[in-house]
Design a protein that fits this description.
Elements lengths: L1 E5 L13 H24 L4 E4 L13 H10 L5 E4 L12 H4 L6 E3 L6 E6 L2 E5 L22 E7 L1 E2 L15 E2 L2 H5 L4 E5 L5 E2 L3 E3 L16 E6 L5 E6 L6 E7 L6 H12 L5 E10 L22 E9 L3 H6 L3 H10 L5 H15 L9
Parallel strand pairs: 1-2, 2-3, 3-4, 6-7, 7-10, 8-9, 10-12, 15-16, 16-17
Antiparallel strand pairs: 1-13, 5-6, 11-12, 13-14
């Protein structure tokens, strides 16, 4: 038995980091990635397609998302499609899941507990649904399989072991421990929720298949899980992303003018595609007037202008020498350095003040 697992598409995601026209392109890319996943399932002749939740954003779903999903899953017939709603696509009274007339090959789990579906002789799929956007308890708490054969779970939940610490800021939903999988009689769990991919002995998280933001790492993919007769599972990861989203760090030390900085950024992005976030690091001479907008046109090969971050750039003022000057700016530096502000606040105030005293209009403190 071969199962394709995809999770955390987040169709209709707002992409708050992007301009409106870029966000629109990114939302289309999410649909394209899901379509790639379904085509992969058909090309690979898998037996079942599973979705581990957060297929779409419940509060932002666009008018035709339901019909897009219906047509896509219907086109996969006769492959059966099983969906375990998560905390973003939770199954409530107004849920999209209840408003679409799904084709016969689609099955949406509706209970907030694990319920069984026989998908082959001797192989049971146990699935569940989030019925609210928060507060869903552990699906494995007190759960035990009640029949023989091989048992695989499909749900959206937060493994609370060492993996949990790797994705900081991710709220726990339906929290569980990896040891509970085997203790319940399950052989394996197909999971959604964490965007960072991970394959463990008893479970797998595919991660979001199409990039959602910058700073993501790991082989996000659609997974094909081969289930053996004795419950042994082997995992294959297949990339279905249609765009690249990359983070690039570029040092500006030694640059004497803005054009040199532009050349460095252009060179670093020359062979990139998709979307890029550029973090500049190092020290700039005080007389270089640099703003993010100055670098947005250096990479026409990208799908949109790069996002430029200057927070890690410092200005190479010699504050020790300036503080010794019998001048207004010397007194200003001494006053700020003697204030109760935090070191970071003092640095920002001093840089802005020195630029103002120099008659500069680019008063942003890097």
């Amino acid at each position: 038995m071969r199962i394709l697992l995809v999770s955390d598409l987040h169709l209709d995601s707002p992409f708050a980091w992007a301009k409106p026209e870029v966000g629109r392109k990114r939302r289309q890319a999410l649909r394209d990635a899901l379509a790639q996943s379904i085509h992969l399932a058909m090309d690979q002749r898998v037996d079942v397609i599973c979705c581990g939740g957060d297929l779409f954003e419940h509060d932002r779903v666009s008018p035709d998302t339901g019909q897009f999903l219906r047509a896509l899953f219907e086109g996969a017939h006769p492959i059966r499609v099983f969906i375990a709603p998560g905390n973003h696509d939770w199954l409530g009274p107004e849920s999209l899941y209840g408003r679409v007339r799904w084709s016969p090959n689609v099955y949406v789990f509706e209970q907030n507990r694990l319920v069984p579906v026989t998908i082959a002789e001797g192989l049971t799929l146990w699935g569940s649904a989030h019925r609210t956007p928060a507060g869903t308890p552990n699906f494995l708490g007190g759960f035990k399989v009640d029949r023989g054969g091989v048992h695989v779970a499909l749900f959206h939940g937060s493994e609370q072991g060492s993996f949990y610490t790797e994705e900081t800021g991710k709220e726990p939903y339906a929290p569980f421990r990896a040891a509970e999988i085997e203790a319940s009689g399950l052989h394996f769990a197909l999971l959604g929720h964490y965007h960072a991919p991970r394959d463990a002995e008893r479970f797998t998280y595919p991660g979001n298949p199409e990039p959602l933001t910058f700073g993501e790492s790991g082989q996000r993919a659609a997974i094909i899980a081969a289930i053996g007769d004795e419950g042994r599972v082997t995992i294959e990861r297949h990339s279905v992303a249609v765009t690249d989203v990359c983070d690039v760090r570029i040092g500006v030390d030694g640059c004497t003018n803005k054009q040199e900085i532009r050349d460095r950024v252009a060179g670093a992005l020359e062979n990139r595609r998709g979307y890029a976030r550029v973090t500049l690091t190092g020290e700039l001479a005080p007389d270089i007037d640099l703003q993010a907008i100055d670098l947005e046109d250096v990479a026409s090969n990208l799908d949109s202008p790069p996002i430029i971050r200057l927070e890690s750039v410092t200005v190479a003022y010699n504050l020790t020498l300036i503080g010794l000057e019998p001048t207004v700016r010397g007194q200003f530096v001494r006053d700020v350095q003697g204030s109760d502000l935090s070191p970071e606040e003092r640095r920002r105030v001093i840089i802005i003040g020195l630029r103002a005293l120099d008659g500069r209009n680019d008063l942003q403190a890097f």
